[in-house]
Structures are given as C-alpha cells and as structure tokens.
Amino acid sequence: MFALAASLPAHADLWGYIDDRGVAHLAPEKIDARYQLFFRGDRSFDTRELTPAEPAGSDDEDGAAPDPLPRRLQAFFDTSPAYLGVRPLLRETAQQHRIDYELLKALIVTESGFDPRAISPKGAVGLMQVMPATAERWGLKGDARRPVPELLTEARTNLRIGARYLRHLIDLFPGRLDLALAAYNAGEGAVQRAGNRIPDYRETQAYVRNVLQIYHGLKPPAPRMQARAPQRVRVEMPAPPPMLRGGAIGRGNMPAGLHAALPNPSDTTPD
C-alpha cells in the first residue's frame, strides 16, 4: 500500500557539505563525518504547496515568516564557480521552458550540486541527472564518437533535456509540483501507479521535501493580501458610437468595452 505522503504536512532535516571543487552534496540525513546540518526541518509545510503549514488557531493575517535559506547553502550560491558559471544559461533555460528559475536551482543543487560531470550509481548524468534513455526519448541522439552519456555532460544539452522533461511533468500533474518532482525522481509511472500520490519510497519522499524546502527558501511565497473594506467606485460609461460598421467578434473594429459582453468564438459550437 502506498503512503499518503502527498497529503500530509512534511518536514525534513537537510545535511550537506561543499567539497574542494565547490560542489554541493546534500542528503536528508548525515551520511558520513563530512556532512553538517544545513537546515533543521522542525517547521512543517505541505508538500502540495510552497507555503508553510499554518498552526492550528493561527490568526496571523500577514502569514508566517518564510524559513531562510540555510547559511551554508546561501554561501554556496553566492560564491561557487560551479553555480556561477552556469547561472546565465540557467536563467535562459528557465525562461525558455517556463519554469521558475529558483525551482531549477533547487532541483539541480539537490540532484548534482551543480557538478556537470556527476554520474549516479544508476547512470543518471550531469547537472539535472538525466538518464540516457530519457534523453533519447526527448530527442537527443549520440553516435559512436560521442554517445548520449557524454553529450549529457555538456551543461547546455543537459539543461535543455532536463528542463523539457520537467516541464512535461509539471504539465502532466497540473497544480501538483510535488508530484512532478516525485516523477522526476522515481518516474512518472511510479507516481501514476501510486494513484497520483508520492510513492512510498523513502528516497523519493526525502527528495521532494528537500527540493521544495530549498525552493521555498529561495523564493518565499508572496504575502497574503489583507481584506479591505469595500469602497465606492465612480464609473463613467462612454457615449455609444454612432454606428457599428461590420463589427465582428475578435476584430479590431469592435468598440472598446464590448468584448466582455460577447461570447468567445472558441466557446461556441459550430452548427
């Protein structure tokens, strides 16, 4: 039976270290003596959202202050040549694929620590830890001279393929970034077999929590708007035009202000 991880508030500690090459290594637990506590996840948030979970009975209309990015991790983003070297390309990729720049940062630092030549035990390669089979699925072709795994060590190629795949997953699970991230880690089939929930895999659950936790620190949620008392608004209607000359829906000769009153052509059914 799959756990209902996606519907529960979640929190996780974040451990890590920065190696001599300036590459970040992150984990939900202390792997060895090199790992130090980056972030203590004693404050929960719902994995379906990016906002912290409200404590029962909270009446803070301004919302709770966001958890700051761990100091060591912020220092990494400020100084690491590994990150700074691909930052312009990362911004370009985020814009091209309509993905939040901060989300790509959070995912990549979790996946590879911004090491373009990182290779996982399962064979995932590069910044976004793309599997060669996934890259081929999204159109990357290698040859005997330069096979797909080698091509994936190129930052531009890796970001292009990885971002295309992530965009596909975000569209596949609309409004559920947690499921898109779970699918990026475990495969979309695993999420679908779990009934569109985060699978009961410890690695995947920790991965989703860590990425969202870092994303939340990089991009705090916008403050909630406070309710205001209704105000009187004076509306002046323009005088009607003397004549409508062949006005048709969606054309430029329609008088201003009439568009909202007419049906959208895409909403009409042809006879």
UniProtKB/TrEMBL annotation:
GO cellular component, one term: membrane
InterPro entries according to UniProt: Lysozyme-like_dom_sf, Transglyc_AS, Transglycosylase_SLT_dom_1
GO BP of this protein: peptidoglycan metabolic process
Example GO molecular function: peptidoglycan lytic transglycosylase activity
Domain Transglycosylase SLT residue range list: 90-197
Residue ranges of the region described as Disordered: 48-71
Similarity field: Belongs to the transglycosylase Slt family.
Name of the protein: Lytic transglycosylase domain-containing protein
Phylogenetic classification of the source organism: Bacteria, Pseudomonadati, Pseudomonadota, Betaproteobacteria, Burkholderiales
